[in-house]
Structures are given as C-alpha cells and as structure tokens.
Design a protein that fits this description.
Blueprint (H helix, E strand, L loop, with lengths): L4 E2 L9 H10 L18 H18 L5 E6 L2 H13 L4 E7 L2 H17 L1 E8 L28 E4 L1 E2 L4 E2 L15 E4 L16 E5 L10 E6 H6 L11 H5 L9 H16 L2 H21 L18 E4 L4 H13 L2 E2 L10 E4 L6 H17 L1
Parallel strand pairs: 1-12, 3-4, 3-5, 5-8, 8-9
Antiparallel strand pairs: 2-10, 6-7, 9-10, 11-13
Helix pairs in contact: 1-7, 2-7, 3-4, 8-10
The chain binds pyridoxal-5'-phosphate.
Length: 374
C-alpha cells in the first residue's frame, strides 16, 4: 500500500488511525457479527456509537447546556436554504457577511428561500472587490466593519472561505464580529481547528468532509432558544426541532458517517484535543506561508496577512504553465490535491487537521527547490 500525501480541499485527508480503526471494525462492529452499516439505527450497538460521537463533540468543543449537537444530511449547501427557512419569519430579514464564494452561495440560496416564504436578505458587509461576475476576495472584515440591522433574524458568516483562503479569527484584528443578532457561522472547512466560544454563536455548522469525517453528514451546534424560535409552517423534515427532539434519530441518519466522525474525534482527543490541534495547525500554516514569503519573487499569496487561512493556503506562481508544472512534479513525489479551485486558479494547499506536519515540511522543501530552479 502506498498512501499519498493528500492536500485535497474536500473530501479531504482523514487521520490514518481513524481509517485503520474502521478497517479493523469493518466486518464485525462491537462484537456484533456485522458491520456498523448493517445495524439498525435504533439498535443498542449503533446508538452507543452515535451517543459517543455527540459526547465527544460536546467535550472537545466545550458545548454549553444552552446548545444542542445535531447530525443532519443534505450537506452544508442544504443548510444555506434551510437556515433562512427556519429562522426568517414572514416579513423578517437576515444579514449576511460575504467574504468569498461560499458566502455568495449562502446569500443566493437565502434569497430564494425567503422569496418563497416571505422575508428578505441583506448583505451587511462584503469584502469583495471588482465589478465582474467573479469578485476578488482577499480578506475578512474587522469586527467593527460589521453591523447587523436592528431586528435581523441572524447574522451569517463563513468562518473560512475554502476557495479564496480567507479566514476569520486567525488574528485578533479579524476576530468574529460581536453582534446583537444571533451569530451563525458556516465552519465547513475549519470546524474543530481550534477552540471557539460556542456561547457567542446561535449556530455553528459544518459539512463533515473537510475536517472531521466523510461526506454525507453535517454537524450543527445550535442554541436551543433558536431551535425553538424556528418556523412551524415548513415541512417537519426541514425544521431543526425535528432532529433536536429526536437526538438526530428522527429518520435514518448517515450511520457510517457518524461512526467515522466518532473515530476522528476519538483520534483528536488522543492527540490532546483542540488546544493541541491549534498549535499543530498554526505551525503547519507558518511553515507554508514561510515558504511563500521566503520566495517573494516567485510565490505570491493574494490574501492579506491578518486573514490568511490556516486551513487553505492559496498562492500563485509567475505563470499558469509554472503552476501546472508545480502540480505535476509534486504529484510525482506523492503530493496530491494541490490545484487551486477552477474559479480562481493557482495553487491551494489544504492543511486540515489530518494533514501531518511532516507532509507540510516536505511540501515546503519542494517549494523552495522549485522556486530556486524557476
Ligand atoms: C465545501 C463547503 C460547503 C459545501 O459543502 P457541501 O457539504 O458539499 O454542501 C459549504 N461551505 C463551505 C465553507 C465549504 O467549504
């Protein structure tokens, strides 16, 4: 077996110990003589694993009693529609902060959802520049730049823009805004990279496939008060109170995905939890940005220093042909997934939790040699 150094943006690298544990338990889960995938979601073996995943999430993130941990399906993209469906009342309005492609998508789905159900959407702050169809995004706003409107149902932001490599709260100057409206964050690509103060958020959510598991599951951490305020005139399957009242077992959940999240969280805990993960991630990002800034005539990161993502490091080479050659040569050395998103081009290194510091050191050394060679 020859496992590569996987820098994919998502689905992305998973910790080897979590995968190995799955392999070991694949055919016979908890001594039951069948795979976890073959179990009833109402059986005691699966339920123990489900409960463990929720408990680990609460423990690692420090989720207070005011909040609920939910597992839902449909991807983060479905939540772009489901959040306004639940939380914007008839005649109400929601505020959005736009810092890249994913927040643009969240806004456009919210517009459709509120048009259907009688409400509206306002962009409270956008850091996009340029008036073409594709805006350029190179920073998160300073906390003082963001003001929620009086009575806004919530303020939504994307904590890490996976495509543009722009992240909130990596520096004090780009801390999350303090708002009167409940704060909602799409943390799909930076969930559990470090500790956050959950009590400051009405809702955090993340598709699992970037940082904490396989695709097919979305984790929500939501204030109970906000769940209760949700509309009741939308189908029950879309109401957040439905998973909340049923421990995310209203209908069949993505059992294998939740099982894998359990394995990943248990690995994360063994490594020292979120404080250890933050130190590890900041060090990896430091090595990568060091390699970029150390070769200023060759590599360029467009993102302002205070917003540079710890999770998705983006940069350009002098020409597109150089970038193509870079991706190809890296692949020859077992380093894959380095091509930037098709909408922005360039190189993107996704350095999620499961990406080993040793891979980053190897990539940085390769970058240095590549730049020297020109
Ligand atoms: C990948 C991603 C999404 C979309 O996730 P799906 O689960 O594919 O719907 C949404 N937001 C961010 C920030 C992402 O990185």
């Amino acid at each position: 077996m020859n496992r590569v150094k996987n820098f994919n943006a998502g689905p992305a690298a998973l910790p080897l110990p979590a995968l190995e544990r799955a392999r070991l338990e694949f055919l016979d889960f908890a001594g039951s003589g069948m795979s976890v995938m073959e179990h009833s979601h109402r059986g005691k073996e699966y339920e123990a694993c489900h409960d463990e995943a929720i408990a680990l999430m609460k423990e690692l993130l420090g989720v207070p009693d005011t909040h609920e941990v939910l597992f839902v399906q449909g991807g983060a993209s479905q939540l772009f529609a489901q959040i306004p469906m639940n939380l914007v009342q008839k005649g109400g309005s929601a505020d959005y902060v736009v810092t890249g492609a994913w927040s643009e998508k969240a806004v456009s789905e919210a517009k459709l959802a509120t048009a259907m159900l009688g409400g509206s959407v306002r962009v409270a702050c956008s850091t996009g520049t340029g008036d073409g169809k594709e805006k350029s995004y190179v920073r998160a706003p300073a906390p003082g730049e963001v003001k929620a409107a009086d009575g806004a149902a919530y303020l939504h932001l994307t904590s890490n823009e996976t495509i543009h490599g722009v992240q909130f709260d990596v520096s004090a100057a780009r801390a999350f805004p303090a708002t009167s409206a409940p704060l909602i964050a799409d943390m799909s690509s930076d969930f559990l990279w470090k500790k956050v103060d959950v009590s400051k958020f009405g809702l955090l959510y993340a598709g699992a496939q970037k940082n904490i598991g396989p695709s097919g599951v979305v984790v929500m951490v939501m204030a109970k008060a906000l769940i209760e305020q949700g509309r009741k005139d939308i189908p029950k399957i879309f109401q957040f109170r439905t998973p909340a009242e049923n421990k995310s077992l209203y209908n069949t959940p993505p059992t294998f995905g939740i099982y894998m999240i359990r394995n990943v969280l248990s690995w994360l805990k063994g490594l020292g939890g979120l404080p250890a993960m933050e130190a590890r991630n900041r060090k990896k990002a430091g090595v990568l940005y060091g390699a970029i800034d150390g070769n200023p005539g060759y590599f360029k990161c467009p993102v302002e220093k205070q917003s540079r993502s710890v999770m998705n490091v983006v940069f350009r080479l002098p020409t597109e042909a150089d970038e193509e050659r870079f991706v190809k040569e890296a692949k020859g050395k077992g380093m894959v997934g380095l091509k930037g998103h098709r909408s922005v081009g360039g190189i993107r290194v996704s350095a999620y939790n499961a990406v080993e510091p040793g891979w980053i050191d190897e990539l940085a050394a390769f970058m240095g040699e590549f730049a020297k060679k020109g």
